[in-house]
Amino acid sequence: MKSLTVMASIGALGLAAVLGVAMAKTNPNQAEYEDYAVQRLTGYLKSDVCNKTTRFLERLINYNCDKIVDSANPQMRQLLSATTERQDFFLFSIYRTELKISDLIPSYKFETVGAFNNFYTYTAQEQ
Known about the structure:
By secondary structure, the protein is an alpha+beta fold.
């Protein structure tokens, strides 16, 4: 019985070590987070903001919201980079972004965890 407990403990320890190494190797960096955040922000702007503009307005001023959003990607990346704080815990990272453009537009706060080469946004609040 005692040898079974020792073997189970060694197996659990080995599994934890393998999991730790895998998490450390797949902890995404700041540039990967910025790619993710720009993609999510672009998708939100196109699906929610652009769809709320009227087609009449677009035709009247020759305005294409989707193209404007696509052309603003480099600026969005710079803005996200400047407003994001990363806490690296070696096995995973937490990214806190406080997105504020002007006093006329509401600001937003996002908290995202990065692990296993993926991101999971667990807080998105309008402030």
